[in-house]
Design goal:
Blueprint lengths: L5 H24 L7 H4 L23 H23 L12 H20 L6 H15 L13 H4 L10 H16 L5 H4 L5 H9 L6 H17 L4 H19 L5 H13 L7 H11 L12 H14 L4 H10 L6 H16 L3 H6 L1 H12 L4 H10 L1 H36 L1
Helix pairs in contact: 3-4, 3-5, 4-7, 5-7, 7-10, 9-11, 10-12, 11-13, 12-14, 14-16, 15-16, 16-19
């Protein structure tokens, strides 16, 4: 190890300092020119100073709220950009047309589904409005007109269901809509501005879709909307009633009656007691007339469930239901007549004796006409499937016979006494 004397070290430091000062002076003067490396170097940045140090204080970092706002804006912009990409509508009748764009849109939709499922912050109003606009662009469409054929209702039930070629994308859109409605991060008060009566009305029109998969998704989504957006409930009930009216009295064709009744089965079970007059009118004017169409067998289980829910809520409505069944009772359709008998059995099990007595006479007249029916299936159904009904009918007929016999006997005794009095 070589030791350097301190005097020699000081001399070297002084020499190197003078040399560096000359180089800097020559470069700044014009000897180095504009092309020298030192001339191109930017000026050094000021170093941060400690508190209490001399000099001008450095600028403080931005507050955390400004950074959070910028992050929210960037998140919102990225989300809306994805949603806008998904607003593009393509023709799915030709599978080979616009294939890359269709796949990109599907990937974006799946990304949005994952995004709303894993989100931790509530959606802003701008994001909610963009989502509703995207739902409307993809889902709301006009279905082709129905081609009426000469087939009967029993023949149309056996037809194969139609599957929409665009379901590959529609399925993801419906999944996104379901996540949107059920997400706690979507404020119902804010979303109510956009999920309004117009949106719900167009959503209800989609229940006429020929694709059963779409109707099944709509059934779940409508039930969730009814539960979350309480302000839309009266409008939904009124709009569904209008759909039933048009089906019964005008079009005689609708694909989604069974799904709508299934939704309202759970809705009716949540009605408070005593029932409002509006709900009773819905039973009498909307549900009971649904027994009139020939295709009642397609949705009869759901219809029967809705009606029995009303009777369980208020037993006095049993007489109203029985009179409604008698009003629309089929005369020449044996299959429909057997359906009515099966529903009548379920209604009678929930009927009180006081209500039964009010409609007993027209009811047994109708059952007696069924026993005299020329269709063997109706008679066989009465004897095999309704033993309680048959026993009640036999008991009633026995009572009527005994009363008639008693009246005849009293009449004979009265006439005899009159003869003796005349003598």
């Amino acid at each position: 190890m070589v030791l350097v004397p301190p005097d020699l070290a000081a001399m070297w430091k002084q020499f190197i300092g003078k040399l560096s000062w000359k180089v800097m002076k020559s470069s700044s003067g014009g000897g180095g020119g504009a092309g020298s490396p030192l001339a191109k170097m930017p000026p050094p940045l000021p170093l941060p100073r400690e508190n209490g140090a001399a000099g001008k204080p450095s600028a403080s970092p931005p507050p955390p709220l400004a950074g959070a706002g910028a992050e929210v804006r960037s998140r919102e912009e990225a989300f809306i950009q994805k949603v806008n990409i998904c607003c593009a509508v393509y023709d799915f009748s030709d599978r080979g047309k616009d294939s890359p764009e269709k796949e990109r849109k599907r990937q974006m939709l799946m990304s949005l589904v994952d995004c709303i499922g894993a989100a931790e912050e509530p959606l802003t109003e701008t994001m909610i409005a963009a989502c509703v606009r995207m739902f409307a662009a993809n889902l709301f469409r006009v279905f082709p007109p129905k081609v009426r054929s000469g087939t009967t209702a029993s023949e149309t039930e056996e037809d194969e269901p139609f599957f929409d070629p665009s379901w590959y994308h529609l399925q993801v859109v419906y999944e996104f809509l379901l996540r949107f409605v059920t997400s706690p991060l979507v404020d119902a008060k804010v979303a109510r501005k956009y999920v309004d009566s117009s949106f719900v009305s167009k959503l209800l029109d989609l229940f006429d879709s020929d694709d059963p998969r779409e109707r099944d998704c709509l059934k779940t989504i409508l039930h969730r909307i009814y539960g979350k957006f309480m302000g839309n409930r009266p409008f939904i009930r009124k709009a569904v009633s209008n759909i039933f009216y048009r089906f019964v009295f005008e079009t005689d064709h609708h694909n989604g009656i069974a799904e709508l009744l299934e939704v309202f089965g759970s809705v009716i079970s949540g009605f408070a007691k005593p029932l409002k007059e509006e709900h009773k009118l819905f039973l009498w004017k909307a549900l009971i007339p649904l027994h009139k169409p020939k295709s009642v067998g397609v949705y009869l289980p759901q219809l029967t469930y809705c009606i029995t829910q009303f009777i369980e809520k208020e037993p006095k409505l049993a007489g109203t239901v029985i009179r409604g069944l008698l009003k629309y009772w089929p005369v020449t359709n044996s299959q429909k007549e057997m359906m009515f008998l099966g529903e009548l059995e379920e209604v009678l099990e929930l009927t009180d004796m006081a209500e039964f007595q009010k409609c007993m006479v027209p009811l047994f007249r109708r059952i007696a006409s069924c026993l005299n029916s020329s269709h063997f299936q109706v008679i066989f159904f009465l004897k095999s499937s309704n033993p309680w009904l048959m026993c009640s009918l036999e008991l009633c007929l026995l009572c009527v016979f005994c009363c008639a016999l008693l009246l005849i006997t009293i009449g004979m005794v009265t006439n005899t006494n009159r003869k003796y009095m005349l003598v």
